[in-house]
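Justification of resources, computational component.

The compute hours requested in this renewal are based largely on the per-chain cost of generating structure records like the one below. Each record pairs the submitted sequence with a full structure-token output. That output is archived, and it is also reused by downstream analysis tasks.
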Amino acid sequence: MVQNRTLQVREDDEKNTCIYSGLFIDRHSGGSSCRNRRTEQQSNHTFTQPFQDEAIFSNYLNISIQNQTYADLGIVLPEKLTTDYFKALTNVLNLLGNYTQSNTGDITFYRNEPNKNELVSHNLIVLGTPKDNSLIKKLNEHLYFQYSDDFDTFISNEKLSIESDYGKSIGTAQLLFSPYNRDAVSLVLTGVDSEAVYLASTQLKSQANASIYQGDAVVVDANYRRYDYRFKKEASADEDESVLSRIISQKDAVIYGIVFVLAVVIVVLVLYFVIKRYYPTPTAKEKGGEQNDQ
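The structure output for this chain reads:
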């Protein structure tokens, strides 16, 4: 039986690191990538999680934990870790840590935006605002709850009408199929400010919290009103069609439509010539002769 463990977060200014009960982040500029100190294995960049059918919050632990170890996680942090961010990160790590048998697996922390190869190689957890985490700006077009063009508030979508002031006060947790690797997922905790990010994280601090959400997006406001939404029609990556596949499908539909119209035109023309040949229209002279006979 797996024993629950709490991952404590604290700063060590003398060593210029951030300690997470066996995990550490190097805070020196330029040192953006840090790994679990007890982990020696390297990522093989493949994902065989049994989560493919259910990429939703109630199943999130099956995504991020494999065989009671961390499933190749990449955590992209904001430029500066404020108190709210430390609390938010603690909530997420507590959720993960309580269901791992040992401090093993692969977790990489990034203080700067990872490169493309790094983004491909992880299940991602992205924490912050568009102003202090550049990856969130790039992910905006993929988010279910997106920011305005100025990145100063959330905008309305098909699920929720959002006034500008309200959009500035909410935090969101959004579970996406990764835009960088269709076999991986990205958990994005974001809001206009760090307090909103912390609000979103409160819904993921334990399995009891996360398991109540049957969707892939959670909204929390300053009054702790919580809203659960499901945007994926099917939570399977295989059935979450890409833009390219939809375009191809539309082109196929147009081609089939043109072929159908041409076929109808050909049939009409053939019938016209058959009728004209075998059932000719009487001429005026023939019509006159018929009248004289009468």
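The CA atoms of residues 57 and 213 lie 6 Å apart. The chain is about 30% helix and 20% strand.
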